[in-house]
């Protein structure tokens, strides 16, 4: 059985020292004093470790059950969900007008890492509800907001996103679900949606489905899609729960992981729906949710990588196997702990340097979202448009790899379900797929974001890297180990960008064939930048005779590992990108 | 549900064109005429696709059950096992003196790829039996051989390897299972073994366990270990089955994958055992099995990568989603097939170029084993000592990654169990762990094999690469696309080797910290060499106006992809290796 240790110290380091939240000039950040964020993180860590983590393994084993249209979540899920609601965690960053606490997204994200790290499957129930809240908050009428938001904020009601149909996942233009206007402002919604997380469950008294559908006469493709609010239980005029709507869960999927999350086939049989936003404007409204959801999925990947790392590190310290080649470290015992072995350390350092770097990157992204939403900062909007696919794609790909390395440290014990290491990898695997498979993230980055607004957001990113390097160029302690590798990696990223500009014009496949490598190359440069920043802070703290030197020395050593051992991947990614599309596209389809 | 297509054409290409089996000067190879190997491959392909593959998914779902000490394998396994036995497949490369067919290991390996590709879990039952056969054949007395081998050859009886105990996996020196001599030449075996594949099942009438145990008074560590034959059912003097021995399966493990393989906790409670080989010589006898088993595990990885690739390619051709950016390819349909998208092709080409390269490498390794066993070739023995950890470690690591990419092409459908893509990845995962976790393979390669006999085997490998390049240097069609990248990759491998020689002397951790990267770097150079060889053959065939130009053109295009897109990884591995052990080992254990 795995255990979860809330990484509150490191989250606080990123919030307060790296991102300097309490002094950032962003609306609402004045509340984020170090004492306040520490208290919030401690409380969130407590519920994560003590309430959510203990039902993760049992949730995996039990899974969800569908009985006569009713989905039963695993034992303890209802109690844990109520505890989360009672603690007020579900409305942390929601609008106070509807009962939320109005905290910045930054704090929500820091808390979210722990909630989903402790129990990935569980986190989808409140996570999807939050996504529905966001869509209605941005696109709903005043009446819709008054009707739904207070209940979604408290998770008295759950929420879902209904996009996928059996014949279309990525290509939403193929959606067939129909919406027929009844003439009274309501619509009949008819169709089948699949892969609907939290589509049906026993945690809330109602579920508010957001459903993409096509109105009669609307054009083909994504342009013809509208978004509808379809409550599981219709509301009476006084707002109380009335009749059951014509929406049912007809099947639960059997999946590789996140067994405790109900992944539903949903049947809409002339269900009553209410238009959210305007007709044929459904994709825009849906994407409001998607961007937030994509950062959230990156966070899920990180959460599982952290869980894997913690358990692998503990096992490596305890499990006695073999001897240190440089001399026994546990001479009185039958063998030395696994952690003495360089190859075990390599895997642990891969994980540690990734999770700490990824944590900084995601929280930087979250702060950038706050700059957009709270300060109306256009430059921040450009930056987060670039960072979102990197956070989703690069982090979830790498996080999965890290959970596999964590599992590997357990040897044979990693493969049996009893230790829980398999579950971590199986759960983490989904994050590479949902909310846009990672290939689609790469396509979004290279095909859309990179060249948006004349490429100025990418230039802004390079300026950020150059600025940091210039600012610190006289810092000898930083130079060789951090700035030089960061500069080299950033040059690889520039060369890749230039390659796309030059060759992508002639043949877009030259860019698309390198999209995934570009996303990873970009991710490494982002983490390199995060590590250089963190190293600078660590060096300053040590110069200032911090009372906690071990924390900062560990931070520096971890950063050195990332720069020396992980950042060299940029060269391989660049070489692949620069090899172009020819070898990728050479074969006719029938040759495969 | 996945389906399996026997890759007989490509296996035949490797056997006859790449390895020129029918004209190789190796004892027994004179039988391997093209017609003969084609017929054997066809027949093996037929049983793989028609008998073994159809019970793979149901085997995963049903798993094995332990009922009152009896293990029930999933539906259809007994019938399939009997079909395999009736076809004579279990004794293909076994000694004719004991009923085998005496075929080279090369042919056994080619057939084995299909048997384990079609059904990984199933293949462990006959695979472990074969390993037990090998150990008894090499180390048994004449009487033991006469007693056990004929039954193991036909798989009337099964076999197992019992090494691991709960407190020791890799570190066998910690084994506690005791062997007390009874004075009549027999021993009482007492202890608990875990992770015993095929430890108990209903496929055979008896199971011959090979058990590592420590005799009274034997020294601590691996030196004190002896290997024992412990039959599940004792034999009467006339060789017929007698009483049940004191060995029982007390638990089946619940695992991430290979659910249909019974992974048993075995309890030996004063069971009757017979010494195999000499006392305190158990490790040597066990390693006889291990080397063969390690190549076999590499083959399992390849088999699952092939299965994943085939199903992903089929899905990518059928599933309609999105449009080709360079113009619709299926204008009359609602969308183009997935295969038009460069990022989907990238993943398919990764898989295709890996599986064909890995197939050539493993079969080259198998031929090398035949050179050792049939020709007593010492140089071949040196070469296979290097190739074995690469085949096991590099191929299973990469194969798992490829099954994950195959799964990714299915999007959300890859995550649900219904399509079978999750099973492929879950099954493939074990190959990185058992028969020596891949970190141990890397350690074996760098710590033992690399420097063995003054490093002359490694020099022989480099000579092979250089020889091929020199021999073909005037071949313009080969030069830029194959020889140049091979030369660069080989230089990276040389630089890594030199780094270990220089820095590993001072501090062995400098070598050990780079061991896993070295194994992968070596693997890439091996596959680069395989591809260069195959490209040469393809070019020659096209020059000679082959009747099957499509096959050779596809081969060339696939090779070009590998050289351009996969081989650049050698630079990243080298950079990591040359960064040394400092960043890897910097942190104290408590800092993790």
Which short descriptors sum up this protein?
alpha+beta, globular, Butyryl-Coa Dehydrogenase, subunit A, domain 1, two-stranded antiparallel sheet, homodimer, Butyryl-CoA Dehydrogenase, subunit A, domain 2, 12% strand, 592 residues
Structure in words:
The first copy, chain A, has 592 residues and is α+β, with helices and mostly antiparallel strands. Among the domains of chain A are: 8-142, Acyl-CoA dehydrogenase/oxidase, N-terminal domain (Butyryl-Coa Dehydrogenase, subunit A, domain 1, Orthogonal Bundle); 156-282, Butyryl-CoA Dehydrogenase, subunit A, domain 2; 455-586. Helices cover 56% and strands 12% of the residues of chain A. Chain A has helices spanning 8-18, 34-52, 56-62, 77-86, 105-118, 120-139, 142-153, 282-318, 342-375, 378-409, 412-415, 421-429, 438-449, 456-471, 476-506, 508-512, 515-543, 549-566, 569-578, 582-585; strands spanning 65-67, 70-72, 157-162, 178-181, 186-197, 206-215, 225-231, 233-235, 241-244, 247-252, 263-276. In chain A, the strands form three sheets. A five-stranded mixed β-barrel of chain A has the order 4-5-11-7-6. Chain A is globular. Chain A starts with 7 loop residues before the first helix and ends in a 7-residue tail after the last helix. The model of chain A has no long low-confidence stretch (mean pLDDT 97). Chains A and B meet through helix 8, helix 9, helix 10, helix 11 and helix 12 of A and helix 8, helix 9, helix 10, helix 11 and helix 12 of B.
